[in-house]
Every structure is written in structure tokens, then in C-alpha cells.
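User: What would this chain look like folded?
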Amino acid sequence: TMNYPKKKSSVWKIKSESAACRGDKLLFVSRVSVDNATHIAGKRYSSPKVKALLIIAVPIRPPYAHNFLSCRQIIVRINLLRMQEVCIVVVANNCEWLPATAQRYGAGLPPTFIQAAAGYVHWQDKQASLLGKVALQQGLIRLGLSPALMHNIRTDAYQRPYIPDGPDFNISHCKGLVVCALSRSGRVGIDVEALLPLEELDHKLVFTPAECRLIAAEASPEALFYHFWTRKEAVIKADGRGFSLSPATFEAVRDEVWVDNQCWFVQKIDVPPGFCCHLATETALSSSPSCVYL
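Assistant: Here's the prediction, encoded as C-alpha cells.
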């Protein structure tokens, strides 16, 4: 329990397991249950009990403190917050939209994204481009962040998109499905592939000799091909250098994949039957990420 210095006889008592100091502010981010609170962070709660995600930034230097600490002895019961590390949004793309559907999905997206999607010839590509941004928008919301962050998207020297001071994200799509992964804890890459029949190709171009031997030994090599390929592409996308990093130069058999002294943590993502999907993260996750289906 923290008692702030009295200012106009105002005292806040906050019981918290999630508090941190950021510059000249105390920051509380918690899932809360509030009893008989009148105002919290400028919002009015009329219900006797309110459950919400509460984010409070309390300035600790005058003259700002007394403006915020304007309520008397508000007691907030705060549970330990377990922030979601990675969010994955999955969207089907298996039928052509009606104009009204396209308009609904495009609502709220930056105009540049809509214009970019309109530049594709085939409806599958147009919708995949738009749905990737819709999935990113919904992922930001589910992480408790503003979708307006999408207006800040930039690209780096390798043309990899990123949000300055925001979560890392990566989008992948194939025939029939679009996925987007967002990460609070470092870089992230994701790849999804439809399990389609394979044409003849030279595995040596994309796999190591050990991986080629494992694929050749399978009675049904297509499944293992897509298993290894989605792991490799997820790592390549997390790394950010694109295919200037050759997939044949590193092995993706284990869940810890090493590339140029950097370890990437790879795990399979459950998606609908007929698809294969893997996620690569810069840090080991404390729990398996859950998928949100739109």
C-alpha cells in the first residue's frame, strides 16, 4: 500500500503487484476490480464493481500531482497482471467479398493500405493485403494498444515494416489464410503455408543436407517439407534480412534455431487443417501464444 503525500487532503491507496517508475511518473498497469469508485483516471464508474484493464500514469513531481490525486481514499484491488507476450490473429481468405464487406473491412485503416490493396489484380491478393492490416489492427487492440499506431509504420533498410516504439509484428498469407503475429518481447516472424501438392524442386537450394535426408526418408515428404519450410521462413522474417539470408545456411530441425550467433525460438502454431504455421521469436515465451480468429 502506497500513501502519497497529502495535497488538499487527498490520499490514494493502491494495492498493486505491477508498478514501475518511468521517468517522473509512476506507472500502474493492472487488471482491476473497483469497489465504489467515483472517478479513476478521469473516467466515471457508476457500477459498484467494475472489472477493467487499468493503466494509470501518476506524475510524482508538483504541480501535477494534485491534479491527478483528486479523489479521497480510492481503494483498488489489483490482481497480478500477466501481460500477453505474443498475440496471433488468424483470418480466412477463401471467398471473394461483396463491395459492402470490403468497405467494412477497410473502415479505420490508413488510406495508404487501401490504395496498396487496390493495386493487385486478383481478388485473393487484394483481400490478403487488406486482411493482413485488419489482423494487425485487431492485434494492437487485443494488446491494449491504439490501432492509430498503424499510421506510424515505417520500413527499415531491408524493407521490413515496423512501428517505432511499438510492438514488433509480422504478417504472412497463403491461399485461403492470413496470419499476423505481434510481440511485446523482441522481434517476431511467422509463416503459414497451404498444404498443396509439391512440384519437383531441388531441396538443396533451401535445406541443409541433414534436412534433405530427413525429407527424403519420409513416406509422405510434403508434410515434412512444409514443416521445415515454415520454420525457416519464420526465422528469416524475424531476422529481417529477407532472402539475403539463404535458408540453406542454417538448420531448423530443433526448436532453437541458430543464425549468425542469434538464437531464435520456434514453435508450431495451431491453425485450421490443411495449413502449416510456425512462429519464431527473439525470446523464449513463458506460455504458448493463443490465436484470435476473426
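Residues 191 and 233 are 6 Å apart (CA to CA). If you want, I can go into more detail on any region.
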